[in-house]
Design goal:
CATH architecture of the largest domain: 3-Layer(aba) Sandwich
Strand content: 15-25%
Low-confidence stretches: none
Number of strands: 13
Helix content: 25-40%
Shape: globular
Largest sheet: 6 strands, mixed
Structural class: alpha/beta
Mean pLDDT: 94
Radius of gyration: 23 Å
């Protein structure tokens, strides 16, 4: 039996197949429409503010803050004749990562981090990559923290309002308003200077999210929350170990936080069924987990990872079998990615028929996982006949956050 057929039979016996993505965009689209009209959808469908950005004159500037993950970044961005100039950039530890802070301490720590930029602009644009609700006036109410941030008293507070109060205490005089947005919104706004048929932002990293312009308003979908999906035996095992096993299935079947776990579960089962050689099985049984970084050495001989080192001690059939398993995992993630992007394209406003659809993509899983971007692009070409471009924009979050300071 050919290795490819052997892998297919094994995966099929555990209900794992890329066919789970077939016509998925229709289900995601229906869920989006339900969320925009009446709520009750899997996806959050957050109305994140106007997508209309004023023309930015040469010399205009804004202070940009990017709070996400373990890092806190800040800088001054200025519009020049050549484009955007990023200056006085600084990266520090996100406040409340190393210790718990109360509400006042949390906002003071943020203000202290940007003190070198005091009154160098009248605008602050604050990209905050944690769960929040965007208000009509462009502020953000913190819903919860993740990524080990410990500031429970700040939950429920309004970022812009609280930070502005702290800045006034510290003697700032020019700032009148702080515009708050999340990273997916910033990614979408990074396309604001491009000519596009429509605009899509898509993030596939640790998690998954998308955004688009709908009725001249930015909609952040939180598409990773979509859960009307058929799971394989391996998916069910992974989800059972999470705090909310039946929620965010699209993210759990696609994103970087889970693909390594998925590979570990699949290979473990294949070892139990004696589908690898004894040498491979004995080596793999010493592993307790895998990450997406372990995939690299399977396709690039110049990169050595734990998996690539393992197959050196096994047979050529082990290498082929492992490569087919990893390819199937990447292919399913790519197909689910393409379906999520296509659903966003179908919902988005059309600006002009003259230009391609602009899909700004962000996330190490999307850009660094072997073959994922190419497989997603090929799948999307089969779904969508109009021209489109998948874009990797330098300093996308910073540029998009700067544009947000000039939203109408």
């Amino acid at each position: 039996m050919k290795i490819q057929n052997k892998v297919l039979d094994f995966l099929s016996s555990h209900n794992f197949s890329s066919t789970v993505a077939d016509n998925l965009h229709n289900k995601i689209l229906a869920d989006m429409e339900r969320g925009l009209k009446a709520g009750g959808s899997d996806q959050a469908m957050i109305k994140a503010g106007s997508a209309l950005v004023d023309e930015i004159a040469e010399g205009e500037n804004a202070i940009v803050i990017d709070a996400g993950g373990t890092n806190f970044r800040s800088c001054l961005v200025t519009k020049t004749a050549e484009g955007l100039e990023i200056s006085d950039f600084q990266k520090t530890l996100m406040p409340a990562i190393d210790r718990e802070l109360n509400r006042q301490e949390f906002y003071k720590a943020i203000a202290d981090n940007i003190s070198r930029l005091k009154d160098r602009s009248s605008k602050i644009s604050f990209c905050f990559s944690y769960a929040m609700a965007i208000t009509e006036d462009g502020d953000g109410k913190i819903i919860r923290f993740s990524k080990e941030v410990k500031a429970p008293e700040a939950v429920g507070t309004y970022l812009g309002k609280e930070l502005l109060q702290e800045l006034k205490i510290q003697g700032w005089t020019k700032i009148k308003k702080i515009n708050v947005l999340n990273d997916t919104t910033a990614l979408l706004l990074s396309t604001s200077s491009l000519n596009c048929k429509s605009r899509i932002a898509f993030i596939l990293g640790t998690g998954m999210n998308s955004a688009f312009v709908y009725k001249k308003r930015i909609i952040v979908t939180e598409c990773g929350m979509f859960s009307n999906l058929l799971q394989s035996d391996f998916d069910k095992t992974i989800c059972s170990k999470t705090s909310q096993p039946d929620q965010s299935l699209l993210e759990k079947m696609s994103s970087g936080a889970y693909l390594g776990d998925l590979a570990y579960e699949i290979i473990s089962q294949a070892c139990k069924e004696k589908l690898f050689s004894s040498a491979f099985i004995n080596g793999f049984n010493k592993f307790t987990h895998l990450s997406t970084a372990d995939f690299d050495g399977i396709y690039n001989s110049e990169k050595e990872t734990r998996l690539s080192a393992l197959i050196l001690n096994g047979s050529s059939e082990d290498a082929d079998f492992l490569r087919e398993i990893i390819s199937a995992i990447i292919e399913r993630s790519a197909y689910l990615t393409a379906e999520a992007i296509y659903a966003a394209i179908l919902m988005a406003d059309e600006e002009s028929e003259e230009f391609p659809v602009c899909i700004a993509c962000n996330g190490s899983t999307f850009w660094k996982t072997p073959m994922l971007k190419e497989k997603a692009e090929n799948r999307l070409k089969k779904l969508f006949s109009a021209p489109f471009e998948m874009l990797q924009i330098d300093d996308d979050i910073t540029k998009g956050s700067f544009a947000a300071a000039f939203i109408q």
